[in-house]
Amino acid sequence: MYQIIKTLISSCKNFENKVISNKLFMVLYKTTIVILSLLIVLSFLSYFGIFTRTHVISNFQHEIGYCYQNRMFLDKPLHRDFSGVMIYLKMRIMNFFVISDSMRNNRASKLILYEDGIPLGPAHSLHQNIREIGEGRYSHWINTIYFSTSENSNPNTNNKEYKIQYQLSIPFPIFIIMLLILTLLFARHFKHKIASTD
Hints:
Elements: H1 2-21, H2 23-46, E1 52-57, E2 61-62, E3 68-71, H3 82-96, E4 112-115, E5 118-119, H4 127-132, E6 138-141, E7 144-147, E8 162-167, H5 172-197
Antiparallel strand pairs: 1-8, 2-3, 3-7, 4-5, 4-8, 6-7
Helix pairs in contact: 2-5
C-alpha cells in the first residue's frame, strides 16, 4: 500500500513538472495571476465607493399601507421570451454586485433613495414602520426597495422623480476566496522558481 501511494505521488510530481515546463501553460498561469490581482485591487477599491452609480426608478408596486416596492434593475415586466431572459439575467448579475440588507446584516446596504433630489430616510427602516408611519422611510432588502414617500403619497401619481444611488462591489466572501487563490498561485510560482534555480 505504501509503495502504491509513493508511486502515485511520484507520478503526480512528474506530471506537474511536465505541465509547468509547457510554455503555453506558464503563459496562462501568469495571465491568471495578473487578472486575479487586478480583480482583487478593483474589489478592494470598490469598498471605498469608487464605483458608485445613480439611476431613476419607476414602476412601483403597492404593498401594504404607505409602503411601495421596486425590484431593482427590473424596469420592464418579464416575458417568457429571449428579452425576458436577458432582463432577468441582468437583474440577477447587478444585484450580485450591490450589497443589500439581509437577515445576516440588516445595515449592510449603502443605497440612498432620492425624491426630487432630496434624500429620503431613515434607511434600514423596519418594514412595519414603512407601512404604518411612512414619511420617507425605506429599506433595501435583498433585491427590492421597500419605501414610502415623504408625504405618504402614491409615487406612481405624485409627479415626483425617484432615484437610487448605490455602490457596485464584490461580496466580501468572494474577495477572500480570490485572495486565497492568488496567495496559493504565488506560493506555487515562487516554489518552482526557487527549485529551478537550485
